[in-house]
Amino acid sequence: MSSGLWVMLAVQLSPLASAATPGDSAAAGQRLHQANCTGCHDSSMYTRPNHKVRSLDALEHQVEGCGRAAKKEFSATEIRDLVTYLNESYYHFK
């Protein structure tokens, strides 16, 4: 296969690879969190012993619910970024 064909194939497949991950960018998620979430609560929400979030799916559901409650229209990518940031910073789900 020619190198040009390999490059074209890699470009076409790269969005599929990132779509398969639970989140894309913790840094983007942190920026979104600071801009949209800290007005309602601080990090103690995630570190308290009786937090309700017990899985990655539950975390994503909670982020979506908080977005609706705050009347924010997060894109699917923004939700993944927020989930990635929160998981890497606080929850550490596999």
Secondary structure layout plus pairing:
Layout: H1 3-19, H2 26-36, H3 44-47, H4 56-69, H5 76-91
Helix pairs in contact: 2-5, 4-5
What does this structure look like?
With 94 residues, the chain is an all-alpha fold. The chain is globular and about 30 Å long. Helix 2 packs across helix 5 (76-91) and helix 4 packs across helix 5. 66% of the residues lie in helices and 0% in strands. Mean pLDDT is 82; it is low at 5-11 and 13-22.
Count up the helices. 5
Please trace the helix and strand order, writing H or E for each element. Answer: HHHHH
Shape: globular
- What would you call the structural class? mainly alpha
The number of domains:
1
Number of distinct beta strands: 0
Low-confidence stretches: 5-11, 13-22
Please describe the biggest sheet, giving its number of strands, its sense, and whether it closes into a barrel: none
In short:
The chain has five helices and no strands.
